[in-house]
Amino acid sequence: MQDGEVGGRRGPREDPLGSGRLRVERSGAPREFRLSGELDLATVDGAADELASAVVEDGDLSLDLASVSFIDSSGIRLLLQIYRTLEGRGRLILVSPQGQVADLLRLMGLTRVEGVEVIQPGAQDGG
Fold first, then answer.
1. Number of DSSP helices (H) and strands (E) in the chain, helices first
2. Candidates 3.40.50.2300, 1.10.530.10, 3.40.50.1100, 3.30.750.24; CATH matching 22-119
């Protein structure tokens, strides 16, 4: 994966090491996905590949992060690449980040970026 680029393969995919540490699944609408596991250096390319076709389309892209237990700088970089790709064509909506994931999103300033909406459980309206 190169800077500013989000992968290209399709279909269900776990991380390339086969450890099953990340799963990306469509969750209802075509531009809504549920991620579960760890979004890190070992899994980020597979996640980028899985999300690639949705990222190039216009409109909001929703990622349910409730079951993501860990994210590192590679995962944050992927979210920023998705945000930049969507810029002006739709929002990146991050649903229910928990624990370390929510903390790192807040620390890295993603919760304050225009065009990125973080929706927490029980919130009536994100932003």
1. 3, 5
2. 3.30.750.24
